[in-house]
Amino acid sequence: MTRxxxxxxxxxxxxxxxxSTDSGIPDFRGxxxxxxxxxxxxxxxxxxxxxxxxxxxxxxxxxxxNNPAWGAEPNPAHxxxxxxERAGRALTIVTQNVDRLHQRAGSGSRRVIEIHGNxxxxxxxxxxxxxxxxxxxxxxxxGEPDPPCPHCGGILKAAVIMFGQALDHxxxxxxxxxxxxxxxxxxxxxSLQVEPAASLCGRAVKxxxxxxxxxxxxxxxxxMATEIVREPIGEALPRLVDLMLGR
Length: 247
What we know:
Elements: E1 11-15, H1 34-37, H2 47-52, H3 54-65, H4 76-86, E2 91-95, H5 101-105, E3 112-114, E4 117-124, E5 130-132, H6 133-141, E6 156-160, H7 169-180, E7 184-188, H8 200-206, E8 210-214, E9 227-229, H9 233-244
Helix pairs in contact: 4-9, 7-8
């Protein structure tokens, strides 16, 4: 009987904050996660709170200036997925992360679906204005603690999907298609508590995929998994990629 890693069909990978912790970016819900150690920080990710509280927005802009992701580098887990792609495997990465470390590692931009947006762009909540995060942070550094939209005076935010915001419909369809056509579905470094991203696991299994969960803590989808891996992601993912490449 063929073992899951010997399957030759499409591979989909859902990545969460845990894949980037070895790059120096803390996760959110882990034992030393950002929200675990500072519950107030979760308010910064809630849309209604953000748009209604100027003081919270000011704190958010400072947090963006000091985000460890600016100096982060891809780690062996990101690089392992690049190996899969370069080996010719049909691969799609659906990431909940906004740090673009997959692309910086060498994953093709067409292979990566940023289901929660990204931290490198800024958008206005009231009009079509957009800008880079770098130029907007320059405004913050120049004395605008909560820089307004230069076109309409509206509220600016990172191009990140916050709690309370709907995911982009087209992006969600692309992610769902990746899950439903996968032969192997890996969920890596994600608590699988945030929907609809977590439900991609169920879609993949329903369509016949082998579900492999790589996460330090239990998840709500563990009972569906073909295999559960608890070892550190930077060690586990390269090992699993070697298995899938027959090495």
